Each structure stands twice: as C-alpha cells, then as structure tokens.
Amino acid sequence: MIIGGVLSPIEQVLTALLEWLHTAIGLPWAWAIVATTIIVRILLVPLTIRQIHSMQNLQAHAPEMKEIQKRYKGDRQKMNEELMKFYKENNINPAASCLPIVAQIPVFIALFFVLRDFDDEVLPRYDDETPLGWLGLVPSIIEPANSHWSGFLLLAIYAISQTTSTLLMSTTMEKMQRTLLLVLPLAFLFVILRFPSGLVLYWVTTNLWTTGQGLITRRLVPKKEPPPKRTSRTPPREEARADVAEVPAERPQPPRPPRKVKRKKKARR
After folding, report:
1. Which of 101, 100, 97 shows the shortest CA–CA distance to 185?
2. Which among 153, 171, 173, 150 has a CA at the least distance from the CA of 161?
3. CA neighbor of 49 nearest in space, from 222, 166, 217
4. What is the pTM of this model?
5. Does residue 264 lie in a domain region?
6. CB of 68 closer than 8 Å to CB of 82
7. H helices of the chain, where?
8. pLDDT at residue 172 tops 80
C-alpha cells in the first residue's frame, strides 16, 4: 500500500517507542500508547504556540475582517482578494491554527498500521503476559472499539472530549465552520467503530490534552490588544514614512517689518 510505504519510517519510530516504554519503563501496552500520545504532543508544542498566537491575532482583527466580509458580501471573489491583502498587510497566517492537527494525521494513520499488525509483528517478540487493556475501558488495544461495551464508553468519551476541545480551539472561526467541526466528531463515530481500541485511546488522550491546554491558555496567556485599524488601502508603514520623507518641509518665513504708510500733506491756502 502506497500510504503504508510512505509512513513506514513513522511506523518504525512508533513501534520502537512503544517497545521501549514497555520494556525499559515497564508500562503496560495501553499505558504505553497514552505515554506515546503525551510525547507526540510535547514535540508539537512549538506548533501549538504558533497556533495560539495565530488564533489571538485572528481574534484581535476579527472586527476588521467582518467589516470586509460585510462590505463585499455580494462579491465572493473580491471579498477573498481583500481578505488576502488584509492577511498579508497584518502578518496573519490563518493556516497556522491547523498546524497541530495536520501534523498529527500521519502519526494517527501510522499508529493504525502498527496496531493492525501488532499481534503478528510485535507481541511474538515478548513472552510476558502483560494485559493489553486499560482501566477496564479498553479490553485490548488491538481489538475493534465496538467489540466490548467498554469500547462504546470509550467512544462516548472520545465524542465529548472532541467536542470540548473544538469549542475551546475554534473561538475565532465563522459560525458555519465551527458548527461543522462540532458535527464532524459525531459523524466520525461511525467510521472509527471498527478501529483498534488503542487508536481511539490515542485520540481520546490527545483530545484531553487539547482541552487542558485550552483551559490553561485562557487563564495564563494574556489577550493581545487590538492593533490600530488598517485596511487593504492603508499603505505599509515603511512606504508611509518614505512618502513623508520625500515631501520637503516648508521653512518658516522670517517676520516682515511693519509697513509704513505715508500721510499726504495738506495743501496750504
């Protein structure tokens, strides 16, 4: 499979990490997945910081962007052009808010392939009888999530945690986009029913991390003050300074002496 071949380096890293957490630290396999999730999220902290700054920047400029959308409501193409100019002038990168999610997609898919072949490629190398379950919610990390009642409970936790993390991280999105992100987890439930329980456990852990991260960010990170209003017609600061420099300043004129008025002499009689 092409995707599996491309992601094989990530699969090897994940397999080695799971085995190291199990053998060197002594974690059960399910707890090794939880620890792997935490390690992945720690490695993504720089992208998360960029995401937070991008969201704060978008929130600070939200009134101006709404004004542009309102002004060009009837012309979609013109509205997009003006928004792109506005993003460029104010150093806004809307895509930065999606970086952590995009970076986790290859890890998620690679972990799916690791767990799919876990019973044949990983477990035979170990003679221990370490359970594959987790807190009674996961009977086995390699069994489908719908194979046990506890798997459905894990899926419910996934839906709640996904919705909560979306509410915390989508405050600057449009109403339609935010509604779509809230509905997608419920629709995605029917897709992940037959996914390995370990994969659902990974996603639940990362959602809980995102939820805690959002709560901490709201309390500790101060909100940026809204910058001065600028539009796509506002010249950049450097150009404005150059224009001011090119215009020569008028020299003050020296004060003129008072004008003397000659009086006419009266004619003698």
Report:
1. 101
2. 153
3. 217
4. 0.70
5. no
6. yes
7. 2-6, 8-23, 29-43, 45-60, 62-71, 76-89, 99-116, 118-121, 149-169, 175-192, 197-220, 237-246
8. no
In a domain, 258, yes or no: no
Q: Looking at the 3D structure of the chain, how many domains does it have?
A: 1
Between 137 and 208, the higher pLDDT residue: 208
Q: Does residue 124 belong to any structural domain of this protein?
A: yes
Of 79, 59, 77, nearest to 69 by C-alpha is 79
Domain that holds residue 153: 2-223
CA–centroid distance for 12 within its chain: 27
For residue range 106-117, what is the model confidence (pLDDT) as tens digits?
888 888 888 888
* Backbone φ and ψ of 223, nearest 5°: -75, 140
Residue 123 within any structural domain of the chain = yes
Compute CA distances 47 → 52, 102, 170, whole Å.
9, 10, 16
Q: How confident is the model at residue 16 (pLDDT cuts 50, 70, 90)?
A: very high
**pLDDT tens across 37-85, in order?**
999 999 988 888 777 777 777 777 778 888 888 888 777 888 888 888 8
Measured between its terminal Cα atoms, the distance across the chain in Å is 128
Q: Rounded distance, CA 98 to CA 143, Å?
A: 31
* Inter-residue contact 158 to 187 (CB < 8 Å): no
- R_g (Cα) of the chain, nearest Å: 32
Q: How far is CA 138 from the centre of its chain?
A: 29
163-187 average pLDDT score:
68
Place of tokens 């808010």: 97
Q: Which two tokens stand for residue 13?
A: 């890293």
Whether the Cβ atoms of residue 192 and residue 142 lie closer than 8 Å to each other:
no
State the Cα–Cα distance between residues 232 and 235, nearest whole angstrom.
8
